[in-house]
Amino acid sequence: MNGFERRKQKKTEQIFAAACSLLQKYGYSKVSVNEIAAAAHVSPATVFNYFGTKEQMFAEMLEDWMDKQLAKYEEILESSLAYPEKLKAVMLAEAGQLKFLLEDLRDVQHLLGNRSEEKLRQFFMKLIAKGRTEGYIPMEFADELVQRYLNMYLREFRQGVDPSQAEPMLRLFFYGLSNT
Amino acid sequence: MNGFERRKQKKTEQIFAAACSLLQKYGYSKVSVNEIAAAAHVSPATVFNYFGTKEQMFAEMLEDWMDKQLAKYEEILESSLAYPEKLKAVMLAEAGQLKFLLEDLRDVQHLLGNRSEEKLRQFFMKLIAKGRTEGYIPMEFADELVQRYLNMYLREFRQGVDPSQAEPMLRLFFYGLSNT
Amino acid sequence: MNGFERRKQKKTEQIFAAACSLLQKYGYSKVSVNEIAAAAHVSPATVFNYFGTKEQMFAEMLEDWMDKQLAKYEEILESSLAYPEKLKAVMLAEAGQLKFLLEDLRDVQHLLGNRSEEKLRQFFMKLIAKGRTEGYIPMEFADELVQRYLNMYLREFRQGVDPSQAEPMLRLFFYGLSNT
Amino acid sequence: MNGFERRKQKKTEQIFAAACSLLQKYGYSKVSVNEIAAAAHVSPATVFNYFGTKEQMFAEMLEDWMDKQLAKYEEILESSLAYPEKLKAVMLAEAGQLKFLLEDLRDVQHLLGNRSEEKLRQFFMKLIAKGRTEGYIPMEFADELVQRYLNMYLREFRQGVDPSQAEPMLRLFFYGLSNT
DNA sequence: GATGAATGAGAGTTCATTCAT
DNA sequence: AATGAATGAACTCTCATTCAT
Fold this sequence. Notes:
With 180 residues, chain A is mostly helical.
């Protein structure tokens, strides 16, 4: 990588960092490209030179972020933890992270794009497959259903859980409300 | 009710309907008051005469909507259904309804206001209390936890479920992922 | 005057009072007809029924006010005071009064209209004539000049003088800055 | 100064000129930023990029204008003219100039800001001090009073005097109405 | 290639005035 | 005759995007 590319790489990271931080604070429609450019010490024009539009810029930032997140997930999946611990770890890996996946849902989910969504889906399929192999997920629940179930919990955890609530929530995950 | 009041009432409903529909389609920040006014066959100025600000207009619309929704819930709670059926009915009462409670979370939840949130919370408390009396909700789960759990499911159902998935989701609600 | 006319008269006075008070507080362009109507416990439509336009309404209000003011001036002119005392009295009669004659000058002076301005000019002519007769205003100063001079002082006094400054200002009026 | 700065400087001047001219013609609240932008051959957005708000734009324009005006005054004060001639020159330097200092008083005086007002006050103090030294302003008149007196005349001259009236007005300034 | 400046299109909001009762 | 409701036109201001250097 030559000097030009390194510089571009660095600016891209600054832009991503600023965009990410401001997105969380104010939400997609309330952050202006000018603000992001200012926070990244870059000209607004540079943002457009790099990404074309505001939307595209956020899309790339989110894909970048999602790739990093998925790397963490994969690591957890490959670890030596027991299966329930893995699930817990995955869910807690989200906690306190990008809440905007919830907040400006329509905007942001659409931005996240098919590629990232597909990657995430594939990770889920592996996670579920492993769960079935290890006997934690009964066959009678269809993949689609379990995926939705997992997703629901992930979203809940993304909003933030205080640690004292994490444990009981996970118990509900496995055993539900009925106590018998 | 005289002519003036009837007319105003009617226009208010038109505005609420237009606002609700457009809010779902595009989200809070992407809908302009002009669009809503046009859809409601009303001048933008009228919207401001009625509600003062865009924000206030949505707040009142949401409160109105929430009151109607709560009325349905109460009716279900007072019905002769078995408890699990009641829960199911409450959840399905949301399906296909106002998705925006999720989508522009920051904006809209804030708009919903304390009054409505409190009303909803109180309904939940009654629902949970009844569940405990009838033995469906064990004492060992704190109110706070159950409320969060219910909320999580409600939110999931709000996004829409096809009926074939409703049943298994409710099974998970009571018995969790574990199948033993 | 029958009942209808009395009612109209009363409403007109309420409107004038509200308009006058709000004009002083906020200035011509920052007061809306709706505000005035509200303050006068009257419908905005009534204001337009009576006066046609906002501008016309203020014009009539100002003419009304000016007529009352001129009546006071005439009384002073006809009184038995010494001439310099009369001048002083006229000037102080303005103090603390309608400052807007200064503030939104362009708007308001234009509103005041030719009729009122002419009445005021005529009063000044009488005042000056009397001053000449009594030897206080030398012939070498043209009417036009003296009128302007008086006006300048009147405007100054309209902005408000604290009583301790009134006396020296009047001394300057007669003897100027030179002290010999 | 590079190309960017020159261009910005030029546009700023165009905006100031347009704002000044239109302010005199129509008064603060009746001039829209759009009008000013059009007259300055600039986009309305540019005005807001430069100054943030309409108010701030006028404030800066007035400060700019006042600085130039004060420079003229200082030059007169330092000149070799006799004191009365200096006073006359200062007053005539205003003639035909910014009448709005009178007209939208509330708005504009507030915009002029403390800085400019303070600069003007300081110039007045110097002018008065010089007048005392040279024996044209007797000690028995307090600074405050003289300042007000000067101000009153300045305001009068700002409204415009035809030259034939300037001389007698200045005679009144020194000797008042009394002729003895 | 990167920037600071500039902008067009549109946002929310206000208000003098008119309309329907 | 008087009103409450309704509005069109205009306002200040924002922002994603483009232009000129």
